Amino acid sequence: MIAPPDRTPLPRTFFDRPVLEVAPDLLGRILVRQTPDGPIEVRLTEVEAYDGPNDPGSHAYRGRTARNDVMFGPPGHVYVYFTYGMWHCMNLVCGPDGRASAVLLRAGEIVEGADLARKRRLSARNDKELAKGPARLATALGVDRTLDGTDACAPGETPLRMLTGAPVPSDQVRNGPRTGVAGDGGVHPWRYWVANDPTVSLYRAHTPRRRSS
DNA sequence: CTAGTGATTCCCT
DNA sequence: GGGAATCACTAGC
């Protein structure tokens, strides 16, 4: 039989490590989102690492700005950005204070509160699509810029928290080029996912867009 | 199944 | 001014 997932919160020391170490270790962990209507919980199945100072694909690559400020702060906090005019995506800040590295949460399996997630994801055709993609995951959980900077490791009640869950054995972890990253950033194989998991997004590579007339 | 494109707004240059 | 760590929808095979 399968042991139930461990509901011990992940401590800040978990995130205070090199981001390439933390990212694959997040697979199988559980993110708890406390909403006014109740909790929504996601088991993470796909993530991407962004390593600030050396990474052209990172929002922090060109220095500290109003948008990416949280990335430059202490680990264990949530960085939420707004993109493409209508979507939000969420990250967990990693490494020591000032390092500006983070893990983008790209996909997961809703394991609690699916009824609440469905109300936010009306276009999803089935429950596997509820959090299949970074903006879908943020939408399913009701995460937006008002949660930017949330400490996921704070004592007591928090709107977002990571639990130990059931980490995925390394022989079930796959990795490859990052998705959707413009410029040279896609060259690093810093996307990690759970092998053969139906909630992994597996989107095609970034396609440059010409502006319309 | 794949490939193409419009939507929509914040923020940096 | 214009790109953006995306999604949903459509057409066509």
How does this structure look, described?
This protein has 213 residues and is α+β, with helices and mostly antiparallel strands. It has a single domain (6-194), classed as 3-methyladenine DNA Glycosylase, Chain A (Roll), CATH 3.10.300. 12% of the residues lie in helices and 30% in strands. Strands 1, 2, 3, 4, 5, 6, 7, 8 and 9 form a 9-stranded antiparallel sheet that branches. The longest helix has 8 residues, at 134-141. The chain is globular. The chain starts with 5 loop residues before the first strand and ends in a 19-residue tail after the last strand. The mean pLDDT is 93. The protein binds a DNA duplex (13 and 13 nucleotides) through residues 48, 50, 57-59, 62, 65-67, 81-87, 89, 91, 104, 106, 123, 133-136, 139, 145, 178-182, 185, 203-204, 206-207, 209, 211-212.
What is the structure about, briefly put?
This protein has one domain (6-194): Roll (3-methyladenine DNA Glycosylase, Chain A), CATH 3.10.300.
